[in-house]
Amino acid sequence: MARKPAIAPGTAPNLPSNLMRVLSLPWLDRTIAAIACVPLVYGVYYRYVHFHHELPLIASVLNTSLLIVTMVVRRPRSA
Fold it and tell me: CA 42, 48, 52, 53 torsion: positive or negative?
């Protein structure tokens, strides 16, 4: 017995342009990125202090550090 496919719900309404303008301010964008990086920085610090310094740990620390740097240094989308 063939079933009728479910209809996808409507898309969410777009955020107001004023909110998008505020969120794309460079200093606010970098602040949000820095706050989002705090758990990553703590994870890197914890692994570095509590585990042996072998190749997988070094690769993980470098990978996470690269992610942190790109999050903080990036430019916000221009409106």
Answer: positive
Structure tokens at 70: 């790109």
Alpha helices (runs of H) in the chain, residue ranges in sequence order: 17-23, 26-50, 55-73
CB-side neighbour CA atoms (13 Å) of 63? 8
Distance CA 28, CA 32 (A): 6
Spatial distance between the Cα atoms of 76 and 79, rounded to a whole number of angstroms: 9
pLDDT of residue 17: 75
- pLDDT for the residue numbered 76: 60
CA 26-35-18 angle, to 5 degrees, is 40
17-69 per-position pLDDT tens digit:
778 788 778 888 888 888 888 888 888 788 878 887 788 888 888 888 888 88
